[in-house]
Amino acid sequence: MDIDSIAKALKELGHPTRLAIFQRLVKSGTNGLPVGVIQEQLNIPASTLSHHISGLVSAQLIKQRRESRTLYCVVEYQRLKQVLGFLQDECCADEQAATK
Amino acid sequence: MDIDSIAKALKELGHPTRLAIFQRLVKSGTNGLPVGVIQEQLNIPASTLSHHISGLVSAQLIKQRRESRTLYCVVEYQRLKQVLGFLQDECCADEQAATK
DNA sequence: TCTATATTTCGATATTACTAGAAATAACTT
DNA sequence: AAGTTATTTCTAGTAATATCGAAATATAGA
Q1: Under a CB-based contact definition with an 8 Å cutoff, are residues A84 and B88 in contact?
Q2: Lowest-confidence range among A33-47, A82-96, B30-44?
Q3: Chain A closest CA to B69's CA: distance in Å?
C-alpha cells in the first residue's frame, strides 16, 4: 500500500537487464529458473547478474529457492499483482470518461 | 513493444516523488493538473519538480498543455496501458496455474 | 514597456547505481 | 579431505541521477 514500496518495485523493474530477467521469470511460472540458466540466456557476468537479482529480491518481486547447488528464482505473483493494482487504480475509469 | 522503452517508463515511475506526481495526475483525469498545483501539493522546489516532470514526459507517460501562463500535465493513458500490458503479459495465466 | 506570474534551464554538488574481475561461500562428488 | 560446480560478496572504478538556488524564458496585464 505504501507508495515508497511501490516506487522501489518499479525502480527495480526499470532497468533493461532486470526487466528482461523478470520477463523470463514471469513466463517461466511458479517453477522459476536457475540463476545459471538466466545467465546463459542473457549472457552477462555472474556477478553483475547476481547484483541485479538481489535488487529484484529486495523489492520482493522475486524469491529464491535452493535445490542442492542450484538456486531458482521465482516471481512473487502477489507482489506483481499489488504493483499492477497501484498503477491501475482510478486509471481506467478516467480513461473511459475521456474517450466517451 | 520495445523492452527498453518499457524499462524507461518503469524507471521514471520508480521514484517516490515522480510516482506521487503520476498518481495525482492519473486521478485528475484528462484535464490534468497545473505544475504549480502539483508543486503546492508536494511542497518541493520548482526546479526539482520541473526536473521530475521532464523525466515523465521523456518516458511519454505524460504530456503538457499550455493555457496562457499555466502548464497542465496530463497522463498519456495509452502509454500507461502499454506498460500495464507488458507487466500483465503471461502473468495471470501462470498465476492461476499456480493457485489451482 | 515595465512588472508580475508560471515554469524551465543552468550550474554545481552530493548521492546512488552499474559493471565486472577476483575472492569467498555453499553444496555435492570422489 | 580434495576437487568441482553454482552463486554470492568484495572491491573499486565509472557513470548516471537527485537536489535546489539563481538566472533565464514565456505569457499576460497595467
Answers
A1: yes
A2: A82-96
A3: 24
